[in-house]
Amino acid sequence: MSFQNSDLFAIITIVSITILIAGISMPFFVVLYFRKKRLHIEEKMKMNEQFKIDIIETNHKAQAQLMQSIASDLHDNLGQTLSLSSITLSSINLEEIQKSKTKIDAALSMINNTIKETRDLAKLLYGEQTLEKPLGEAIEELALSLKTGGYNLTLNNQILEADNLFPEKDIIILRILQEIMNNIVRHAHATHIELNTQIAMGNLSIRVKDDGLGFDPEKIYDQQKIGIGLHSIQRRIKLLAGKITIHSTPLKGTIINIQIPYT
Predict the structure, then answer these.
(1) Residues spanned by the domain of 200
(2) Tens-digit pLDDT profile for residues 64-120
(3) Is 240 within 8 Å of 260 (Cβ atoms)?
(4) What are phi and psi of 157, to 5 degrees?
(5) Assuming Cys at both sites, which of 22, 79, 93, 258 could form a disulfide with 206, CB separation 3.0 to 4.6 Å?
(6) What does DSSP assign to residue 252?
(7) Residue 98 falls within a domain, yes or no?
(8) Is the Cβ–Cβ distance between 110 and 88 less than 8 Å?
(9) Quick check: is 83 in a domain?
(10) How far apart are alpha carbons 242 and 258 in whole angstroms?
(11) What is the distance of C-alpha 36 from the center of its chain?
(12) How far apart are CA 144 and CA 138, in angstroms?
C-alpha cells in the first residue's frame, strides 16, 4: 500500500512540475509567437514597400525606353527620309526635265511617307506601333525609294514571300535598314549599294555592301566617337539578340553583316 502511495505521490509530483513548467513557459511562448507575428507583419510591409519601389522604377525605365525609342525613330526614320528628300531635291538639274520630274515625284513620295511615319510615331506613344506589312515587302519599298531617288541599288530579297510573322520585331529590323541606308547616302557617297536578305536555320541574315568612302571600324567601339546612327543600329540589334559585323576600309567601301534570330 505504501508502495502504491509513493507511486501516486511521484505521479502527482511529476504532473505538478509539468504544469508548473508549462505555466512558466507559456508566457515565453506567447511572447515568442507575437514577436514572430510582428516580424512577419514588418517583413510583409517591407515587401509591399519594395514592390511599390520596383513598380516606380519599372515605370521610369519604361518611360526612358519609350523616350529612347522616340528619339531613335526621329533620327533613324523621319530624319533619314527628310535627308533623302533634301538630297534628291538638291540634285535636280532643271535642264534635264524628265529626270527632274522623276526626282521631284520621288521627293514628294518620301515626304508623304514622312507624314505617315509621323502618324506611326504617334501610335508609338500609345504602344501601338507595328509593321503593318510583311518585312520583305517593306524592304522592297525602301529599295524602290532609293532607286527612284537616283541611287544605284541592287536588291536580292529572298524574304519577299515571307509572311508578316513578327510585326513588332519587323519594325525594328526595318528601322535598322533605314539607318544603314541613311548613313550610306549621307556619309559614304557610294555609287553602288548591294542589299541581300534571307532566312535560314531560324535566322534572318542581312548583308549590305557599298563602294563608298569607308571608315575605320575601330572607331565605332569608342563611345565618345560613335555616331548616333551606328549607336542606334547596335542598340536595336542587341535588343533583338542579334549580331553585327562591320568590315570597312577607308576609300574602299563597307560590308555590314547582320544575324537576327527569326523564330
Answers:
(1) 135-263
(2) 555 565 566 655 566 667 777 777 777 777 777 877 888 788 877 777 777 776 766
(3) yes
(4) -105, 95
(5) 258
(6) S
(7) no
(8) yes
(9) no
(10) 7
(11) 46
(12) 10
